[in-house]
Amino acid sequence: MHLRGLRAMDWMAGKKDWREFYRFKDRLGPGTDYYAAMLDDPDTVEAMLKLPPAKPGAPALRDWNWLRETLTQMTEVIAASGGAKVKLPRPESEVERRRSERSRRVSRHNAAALTRNSTPSFTTKKAPRGRIR
């Protein structure tokens, strides 16, 4: 098996330190033999069943690729052709999360200002009068 320029046989033959593989193994995701074996291991399954169920939401950015994006777009197009408005979740980067949080804060600030029957604080400053130097 070759993955990211690494050969599993290098560890089997003793050419590489097993501690390196132990740090690397968690990055082996869906589609690898390691991942499939982990999900078939009875001890791992028992440990996973003890965890609380995952909350539905956006998929992880590390698991997103062109195939998942294409399938998501196709699903949305098929749903739209049937008259349904469907917007499936997509992963968000940290930049997108911060932008949306900043936008929500500004919206809350503006809504609070409107409920007080006043203008938002960032528009209350008057422009200076007189000549501009």
TrEMBL record:
Record field: compositional bias (Polar residues): 115-124
UniProt region (Disordered), positions on chain: 82-133
Biased composition (Basic and acidic residues): 89-99
Annotated protein name in UniProt: Uncharacterized protein
Organism: Tsukamurella soli
